[in-house]
Design goal:
The structure is a single chain. The protein has 228 residues and is α/β, with parallel strands linked by helices. 47% of the residues lie in helices and 14% in strands. A five-stranded parallel beta sheet has the order 2-3-1-4-8, sandwiched between helices. Strands 6-5-7 form a three-stranded antiparallel beta sheet. The two termini are 17 Å apart. 34% of the residues are buried. Bound molecules: adenosine-5'-diphosphate and adenosine monophosphate. Adenosine monophosphate is lined by residues 19, 41-42, 45, 62-63, 66-69, 74, 95-96, 98, 102, 182.
């Protein structure tokens, strides 16, 4: 050993958890703290729907029902975005993978570039609380900062803490029926990934029923350990 610190791969994190667990909220914090890139397949799909691309047209009705978009479409969109230069320094996967097929595809994509998944962090929460979180969720239209009617309100009412914007939006799929379907899809198709990543020995669990700041501290400790 000559004492040289060799870092062969960037830090790549998977955030697992049902809708409303806090993946997006925490991904934004980790992105800033560790200079990583948040990749949310939900955001990528909503952008495709808004742009009216072929993938967006195919995904729209599926998303409105709260079902999962097909693996082919999601993997293609993710692969495309992952090849951008700003992803080379490390990525936080938010809402991806959601099926074992997607997890296998992600392993392949990582190995193609000599990368690995550093940690898959499961945000552990109760279903009942998720309905309350999702029904109170809104975001700043300008910068995407997330808020909640009760749990995270802007310091000055009607003004985004992050960018000063005053226009906010709610997601069309954040309604009671769709949320029930999304939770069902989570338990049927995504929860098995907890065992998938446990087998790969990269799984970490975090109590995401805690307040936002406490969850953030736990996540940062995990990333700091990974970076050490
Ligand atoms: P996800 O990306 O997993 O779907 P979000 O990060 O959008 O979830 O969080 C859903 C809602 O719950 C948002 O309104 C957010 O402000 C709020 N939230 C996130 N984490 C917590 C928490 N630990 N406690 C209370 N509310 C939270
Ligand atoms: P999210 O923004 O993560 O809550 O995702 C919103 C919706 O987009 C989901 O209910 C799905 O319909 C779709 N979606 C997002 N990510 C995926 C994925 N990895 N696989 C399949 N569908 C997805």
């Amino acid at each position: 050993m000559d004492g040289t610190q060799i870092k062969p791969t960037a830090v790549n994190l998977v955030l697992l958890g049902p809708p409303g667990a806090g993946k997006g909220t925490q991904a934004r914090k980790l992105e800033e703290a560790f200079d990583l890139k948040q990749l949310s397949t939900g955001d990528l799909l909503r952008a495709a729907v808004a742009a009216g691309t072929e993938a967006g047209l195919a995904a729209k009705a599926v998303m409105e029902r709260g079902d999962l978009v097909s693996d082919d479409i999601v993997i293609a969109i993710l692969r495309d975005r992952l090849s951008d230069d700003d992803c080379a320094g490390g990525v936080i996967f938010d809402g991806f993978p959601r099926t074992t097929v997607q997890a296998g595809a992600l392993d392949e994509l990582m190995s193609e570039t000599g990368q690995t998944i550093t940690a898959a962090i499961s945000l552990e929460v109760d279903d009942a609380a998720m309905i309350e979180r999702i029904s109170g969720r809104y975001t700043c239209s300008a910068c995407g900062e997330g808020y909640h009617d009760s749990f995270k309100t802007p310091a000055k009412e009607g003004v985004c803490d992050n960018c000063g914007g005053s226009d906010f939006k709610r997601r069309a799929d954040d309604n009671a029926e769709t949320v029930a379907q999304r939770l069902k899809a989570y338990h049927a198709d995504t929860a098995p990934l907890i065992a998938y990543y446990a087998d790969q020995q990269v799984l970490q669990g975090v109590d995401a029923m805690q307040p936002i700041d406490a969850v953030e501290n736990d996540l940062k400790a995990i990333v700091q350990t990974a970076l050490a």
